[in-house]
From TrEMBL:
Keyword vocabulary terms for this entry: Plasmid
Signal peptide region: none
Source organism, top-level taxon: Bacteria
This protein's record includes keyword Magnesium: no
Ig-like SoxY domain span: 41-148
Species in which this protein is naturally found: Rhizobium gallicum
Gene3D superfamilies membership: SoxY domain
Entry protein name: Sulfur oxidation SoxY protein
InterPro entries, alphabetized: SoxY, SoxY_sf, Sulphur_oxidation_SoxY
């Protein structure tokens, strides 16, 4: 069997089609990337919710001190409260950047702080409720400099 230009072209075309098919499902479900990420990190499914709000600037000059506000609408009673909030930055060297714990009848489920980001990315907040539900919110943040060096 000799290598001809025709066989080389056919083999190349098959390789390109196989590569495109391997990437196609990922691009078709780009909106589910954060949900998939949370499921890989926690082993549980989360639901996007307006009850959890992650407020961050869409563009920030430096990745060293990016402001972040998180609020969860919850009565904070013994039977209905926020147990914890975890914050993930998938492109950072250390993916989990913050974790906060709450007690019922002690406080509001609200946090205001600053985090470091390695580059432009979606930041994902995950709130665990007392009934076992996981609420998720994400925010795109574009930073000009890497804050994780």
């Amino acid at each position: 069997m000799s290598l001809t230009r025709r066989r080389l072209s056919i083999t190349g075309a098959i390789g390109i089609v196989a590569w495109a098919l391997a990437l196609w499902p990922k691009r078709a479900r780009e909106g589910d990337d954060a949900l998939d990420f949370v499921e890989r990190m926690t082993g549980r499914a989360a639901t996007e919710s307006t009850q959890l709000r992650l407020l961050m600037p869409t563009v920030f000059s430096t990745g060293y001190t990016v402001p972040m506000d998180i609020q969860v609408e919850s009565p904070m009673t013994e039977t209905d409260h926020v147990k914890s909030i975890r914050v993930f930055a998938p492109e950072n060297p250390f993916v989990e950047v913050a974790q906060f714990h709450f007690s019922p009848r002690r406080c509001l489920a609200r946090v205001s702080t600053r985090i470091r980001l390695a580059g432009p990315q979606h930041v994902v907040a995950l709130a665990e409720m007392s009934d076992g539900r996981l609420l998720m919110a994400k925010s795109w943040v574009s930073v000009a400099t890497n804050g994780c060096r």
